[in-house]
Amino acid sequence: MVDMDNLSQQHLDVLKEVGNIGAGNAATALSGLLNKKIDMSIPSIKIVDFNELMEYVGGPDQVIVSVFLRIQGEAPGSMFFVLSPEESHSLVEQLIGTSADNIEENELAISAISEIGNILSGSYLSALSDFTSINLQPTVPNLTIDMAAAILMQGLIEISQESDYAIIIDTMIEEEDQSNESVKGHFFLLPDPDSFDKIFKALGVED
What is the rounded distance in angstroms from the CA atom of residue 27 to the CA atom of residue 12? Predict the structure, then answer.
């Protein structure tokens, strides 16, 4: 098994490079979809245990907006794209120009966030797949608005008995020349236990 405690900054830098490639692909796709220039970046990437993951979004009782999907292929796992309700409102208003104070009651907003989450997740997984030569395919995304504990357990419950870690990929999304209106979201990548080994070995991490 890969020893997560001994992963170096270099290994995280490789993951960040993969993330930036995915962000670039996603920005291109979103720009074409919305007919406006969208910039994306990955300001930070880290590996945390599950307790830290829950606290990262403000605690188990914090309401979050999440696009969840399973990763299928040679290194299966789970992926979440997570926004606070405030960030999701800003994202919808910024990208499609529609007010979305009550996202759960706004079908257009739900559709927009689901599609954005689908594009971002697909772009990241495509970049990771290309970089590692591991076949990774996303399932259809599922958008949920609920407390963090309820949402995150959906992805954790299958692997919490065997794995203690998740990869957090911070993401900044902004319309070009509108950096004061940037939206911050998070990817939580939870490879199944055996998948951690496959991914990190493919990235050059030895046991």
Answer: 22
